[in-house]
Write a structure and sequence with these properties.
Blueprint lengths: L3 H12 L1 H30 L10 H9 L4 H26 L7 H32 L6 H13 L4 H24 L14 H35 L8 H10 L3 H24 L5
Helix pairs in contact: 1-4, 2-3, 2-4, 2-10, 3-4, 3-5, 4-5, 6-7, 7-8, 8-9, 8-10, 9-10
Amino acid sequence: MGVGSPMSAADRAGSSDGLENLARVGLLAYGVVHLVLAWLALQLAWGGGGSSESPDQSGALATLADSPVGKPLLWVVAIGMIALAVWQLAEVLRWRSGWSASGDRRKKAVTKSVKAVVKAVVYAALAVLAIRTVTGSGGSGGQQEQQATEGVFGLPAGRWLVGLAGLVLIGVGLYYVHKGVTKRFLEQLDLSSAAPGTRRLVERVGLVGFPAKGIAFTVLGGMLVYAAVTFDPNKAAGLDGAMRTILDAPFGQFLLTLVALGIAAYGVFCLIRARYPERT
């Protein structure tokens, strides 16, 4: 009884209507952030709009903050991201029973748990960023990335840690590309009640959105690896720097446009996922 109670509580928490509805709000907010990010990337690519915001998460949140309902909207984003983080932590508890198993069951449980922890960290970081933006204490993503890299460089084996972080980001980027190409993103939705047209839309936006986000992560990871190799924290930058690196490549305008459209497609995927979340 004593052992099963925490697991039962985790199952109830992860499956509760209240948390699921908050998670839906989080997914909607996550989708909106990606749509704004795509718009900023398009502005960077074509030099229009005169926006002073960087095409990264902090720039997207700052753009939302400048809207007529900016501050209330950012609080909704923060609450939604916290709900998503709690949702993922509940998933970790749910899969915990498989850690002591053997074979494929244990491998699946550990893999699912690690993914859930990573997602929880990402959502929690976005919640903090949203709160800092609404309270006026946030900074640009590139500046934060450089400051963090400088701090890590000062640690024992800091150069290796920066390089490892870059390789992890490259791995995450390649995973997103693979997930998009193989349509594994469909596992994140329950489309049993969806119309055929919705299913086709999900497949199309996923096939475009996941690889595009993966490319952005891969470029960002490559910049961190380059910073580690050259021992220069100024070479490290956030998503803003990754976008500008793509823009500086041959045919950069068109490449960045494709990435921006892909990120917008990923945002649409998040909006659809809020309507048809997976049942776990």
